[in-house]
Amino acid sequence: MSVIRSFYGVIVRKTKKRENPLIRIILIIFEPWNYFNCRASFLENYVKKYRPFLLFLGKFFLTYLLATVVYQWYLSGFDANQHDVDDITQSVGKQSRWVLQLFGDAGLNRHPSQPSMRLYFEGKYVARIIEGCNAVSVMILFAAFVIAFAGRLKHTIWFILAGSAVIHILNVFRIALLCVLIYHFPENEHFLHGVLFPLIIYSVVFLLWVVWVNKFSNHAQKSP
């Protein structure tokens, strides 16, 4: 590539000195190559300049994609048409009921016509727990960031496990508290379910990311 670039430069200099028809023809032939060569050089410099960021994005999306595929494969073992509820969601429902019992009488059963669990508080049906309520997608997002922002293998594994446990426990309490608040303030259901509690969950995830980057990642180890 450098040889062709040098050859092209010689042709350009000669063309400036005199109007040689043969050289002008060669120049026209090589003009597209020079354009694409410049573009390739620009791309190469761009990749070198932003290599850490591009590596982060590549590892993040690859990890997120692979984990999502594995999770979807797990879910494929449950027939939604038969109203099957996956084991993780069932476990989250049972644990949410246990926490809800701290606040009063609580009940849980399978929804007869949907792949979900129904939660009752003080004899009233207040919420249903579907697959999207088990926080697995949040854990995948959390883990993908930790893996992308590399650290030592041992630190990476235990931080993902510990962080996922924090997210799971927080999610169980979220569901239980949400049921209590919806029971007492049903008019605020949209704000509680769609704004307040998601904000709390993702704020905790963000704080976990900050701790990882500043305390355990390779970036933290290199910093003075």
Measured distance between first and last alpha carbons: 42 Å
* Fraction in beta strands: 5-15%
Shape, principal axes of CA atoms: elongated
How many helices? The count is: 8
Mean of the pLDDT scores? Answer: 83
Number of strands: 3
Going across the biggest sheet, name each strand in turn: 1-2-3
Domain module count: 2
Overall SS class: mainly alpha
Q: Helicity range of the residues?
A: over 70%
Rg, nearest Å: 29 Å
Ranges where pLDDT stays below 50 over 5 or more residues in a row are 10-18
Q: In sequence order, what are the helices and strands, one letter per element?
A: HHHHEEEHHHH
The main pleated sheet reads as: 3 strands, antiparallel
Blueprint of the fold:
Blueprint (H helix, E strand, L loop, with lengths): L1 H16 L3 H29 L1 H25 L11 H14 L5 E5 L6 E5 L2 E6 L6 H13 L4 H32 L4 H28 L1 H5 L2
Antiparallel strand pairs: 1-2, 2-3
Helix pairs in contact: 1-2, 3-5, 4-6, 5-6, 5-7, 6-7
3D architecture notes:
The chain is mainly α. The protein has two domains: 2-47, no CATH class; 50-222, no CATH class. The protein is 72% helix and 7% strand. It has a three-stranded antiparallel β-sheet with strand order 1-2-3, covered by helices on one side. Strand 1 (106-110) and strand 2 form a beta hairpin. Helix 5 (136-148) runs parallel beside helix 7. The protein is elongated.
